[in-house]
Amino acid sequence: MTNPRHDSNTRVTQLRVAPIDCHAHGICAELLPEMISLDEWGYPLLEGGPVPPELIRTAQRAAAACPTLALKLVRSGPERHTHHRP
Amino acid sequence: MSQELTQALWFASRATGLVSLLLLSATIIVGTGTSGRFASPRWPRFAVVSLHRNLSLLALAFLAVHIAGAVIDPYAGIRWADTLVPFISVYQPFWLGLGAVCIDLTIAVVVTSLLRHRMPLRLWRAIHWAGYGVYPVAVAHGLGIGGVDTRLAWVLVWFTACALAVGAAAWWRSAHRDHPDTLARDAAGAELWR
Amino acid sequence: MTTIESTWPAPAITTRPGLSHGWPRDGVTMGWDEHLALYGPMRASRRIPRGGDRALVDAVRQAGLRGRGGAWFPTHVKLAEVAAGASRSRPPIVVANGCEGDPASNKDHVLLGLAPHLVLDGIEFAARAVGATEAVICVHRDDMMADVLREAVDQRRPSGTVPAGAGPAGFPVRVAEVPDRYVASVDTSLVNFLNTGVARPLARDPRPSQRGVDGRPTLVDNVETLAHLALIARNGPGWFRARGTEDAPGTALITVGGPVRMPGVYEIDLGSPLGQPLRMAGGTDGPVRAVLVGGLGGRWLPLPAMGNVALTDPCLRAAGARLGIASLIPLPAHECGLATTASVLRYLADESAGQCGPCMFGLPAIADDMTRIADGTASPGLLNRLWSRLGVIPGRGACAHPDGAAGLAASALEVFAEDLSAHLAGTPCGAANDPYPLVGRP
Known about the structure:
The structure holds three protein chains of three kinds. Chain B is mainly α. Chain B has one domain (about 5-195). Chain B is built from eight helices and no strands. The mean pLDDT of chain B is about 95. By secondary structure, chain C is of the alpha/beta class. Helices cover about 40% and strands about 10% of the residues of chain C. Chain C has 16 helices and nine strands. Chain C is globular. Residues about 5-15 and about 160-170 of chain C have low confidence and may be disordered. The interface of A and C includes residues 19, 42 and 43 of A.
C-alpha cells in the first residue's frame, strides 16, 4: 500500500502565513531564507510553489520557531480542492 | 544509607538548587529577549529563541537532580508527592511547598510549550506569562528553605545578583514595546470597530 | 474626454421585468400587503428540512446567480457548502449583509428601504435551501434601516407565510446594527461581530460557510443576492436567465454617482455597456475623462475608450477593472485623477482594521506616495518604489481591503499616465489642490 506522504505526485507542502497573527518577528526569514524574505516593513514574502523535499525539515523548524505560530505548513493535494475566491 | 552518601545527596540537592535558580534566571532573561525582539549581529532572533529553549531544558535537568536528591536522601523524609503537592510535607511544609508550587507551574509552562501547536495561542500565552510568577516563589523557596546556608555571604550575593538581573530584564522588556507592529496594533484597537 | 449624452439607441427589449419593476417612486417602503400585491406569494411554505433542500440549490445553480456583494461568487456553491456542513448540534444560520461599507455604493440601502420584504423572502428561501434555523440581517448602525427592517419582520409574523414547524413565533429573524466602518461589511467581519462584538475581518480560513456564527455553517449573502433568490423562487431559473447574457445572467443594481444629472441606483441587464447606466442617470453634466468602477476600492477606466465594455465581472477584469460592488463614478475632465486618487487612498488607509502588516503599513505608504505625486513633490525613484509596493501589498491581508487600495493606485498610474509625467516633473495640474470629493459623498 502506498504511503500518501511519500507520493510526491499528488501531495505538496506549501508555506502559509496567517496575516493577522504575524507580528513581524522575522525569525522565519532567518531560518528559511531560500523561501522567505521580508518586505520593507518586516513582514514575510513567501516564495510561491511547493516546499522542495530537502527544505521540509528546515521549514518545519521555521514554523515551530514562529512566536505567534503564524507560519504554517499545509499539505494539499488534488483530492482536497480548496475554493479560491478573490 | 551511609552517612557519606546521604550527605552527598543533601549537598547535591542544595547545589543543584542554586544552579537551577541561576539557569531559571538566565531562561527568563533570554525569554524577555525573545518577546522584546532583541537582536544583534552575533545574536539573530532565531538564536535568541533557540537559546531560551535550550536554557529552559538545562534548567529542567538541574531541577530534576535537585528534586531527586532531596527525595532520595532519607534525612529529611521528603516524599515524591511532597514535591508536587504543595504544603503537605513533614519537613518545612511552607518553604518546601513553595518549591512544589514552582515545579507545578514550571511543568505547566514546559508541557504547554511542547504542545504549543495543539492549543489556542491565547491559552499558551496566558500560561507562559504566569511563568513569570515562578521567579519570586523560587527565590522565596530558596531563601526560606536554605536555613543556615542562606546566611552565607556568597549565597546572598548569588540570590541578589540573579534577582537584580531578572528585574532588569523585566524592566527592559516592559520598556521595549515600541516595535512598529505593536504600536500600530495598539493604535487601531478593537474598540473602533464595536 | 467625452460627454455622455442621455440619448442613445434604446436597449434591447427586455423579456421580463427586473428586480426593481414596480417599486414605489415616492420613497415609501413597501409594506407586506403591497409586497404581496406586486410579487404574489412565494412558494407554499414547508417545514425546513434538516440538511437543506438540494432541489432549491440546484435551481439556483441553473439560474447561474452570482453574489452581488462584490465577489460575484456562484451563489449555489456557497449554498451547497453551508448545507453540507450542517449537523444537529450545528444548524446553519443565514446572515443577510446589508452593510455596504463602501460609500460609493447605495444599492443595498435603496433595496432595503423600498422592498425589505423581497430580502426577507430571499432569506427564507436561502434558509430552506441550506436548512438554517434562524437569520440575522446586518445593517449599519447610523442607517435607520434597522427600524425599517424590524417593522418589516413584525409585519410578517402573524401572516402564516413563515414555514410551518419553525415555531409559533415564526422563522426567527433579528436585526443587528454594525458599526459604520469600511471593512465592517466583509463577511468574516459580520461573523466576528456577531460572535464577539468587534466588526473586524478574520482570517479567510475557516470560511463562514464552514464555521461562522457560534461555530455554525453560516451563509453570508448580500441583500441584493437574496432579493434575486426571492424572485427565482417564484419564477424559476429560466425566468432569471431571460435577462443578462449566457455567461452573466440576470440583472444587477448599479449605483451611479458623481457628475451625472440624476445620481442614484439603476437596474441593468448584466452585460450592458458601461455607458448604459450613465445614460440612464441622465448623462454627465460636462465632459468626463475616466470612471471609477467598483467603489472607492475599485479601479479607474478611461472614457470614452471604455464606454462600451460589458458590465460583467469577467469582461471588466479583462479590461483591467472589477465589477465589485457595482458602482460608477465618472471623473470630470478638469479634475486631477491623481489628486482624487490620493485622497481616496488616504481614506482607505484610515479605514484599515490594523490587523495585517502589509495593510496597516502599506496603505499609508502608498497614500503618501500618491499624495507626493499629486502635489508635484515626488522625488526621483518614488514612482519605482510605489510600483514595487503595489506589487507586494495585494494578497497578504486577511481580507481584500489592501488589494482594493493597491488596485486603485495602480489603475490611476496607468489611466492618468499623461498627467503623471507632468506631476513627476514638478508641474502638477491646477486642479490638484482641490481633489474631486469622492470621499464623503452621501
